[in-house]
From TrEMBL:
InterPro entries: SBBP_repeat (IPR010620). It holds the Pfam family SBBP. It comes from Rapidithrix thailandica. This is SBBP repeat-containing protein.
Length: 108
């Protein structure tokens, strides 16, 4: 189980490093439970992903310009206030948008 969790995290981080800001959740059988994508008109990079005890998914990273962090039909745009800003996003266990926050400004 520990090795499987490590492999899942490696797969998710690989997806982030190739520039796809996709959030993936994989079952023990390695079948996709869900996959979501979000992004903007400029660069956006996912750096970390974590799960809490309720199965909620948290992603962090940084972005430039404007990004819609709601992977569903809604819109939740955040605007970088400087060169780039950092973000934290929360999705529920089903991959539905809960909230997203950003921080930065100036030449951050």
């Amino acid at each position: 189980m520990k090795g499987l969790r490590k492999r899942i995290i490696q797969v998710i981080l690989f997806c982030f490093t190739i520039g796809l800001c996709n959030t993936l959740l994989i079952a023990q059988e390695l079948n996709f439970q869900w996959a979501k994508s979000m992004g903007g008109s400029s660069y956006d990079y996912g750096k970390s992903i974590a799960l809490d005890s309720d199965g909620n998914v948290y992603t962090t990273g940084y972005f430039y310009g404007t990004v819609d962090f709601d992977p569903g039909t809604g819109i939740h745009n955040l605007n970088a206030m400087g060169y780039s800003d950092i973000f934290i996003q929360k999705l529920d266990r089903e991959g539905n948008f809960v909230w997203a926050k950003s921080m930065g400004g100036g030449y951050s």
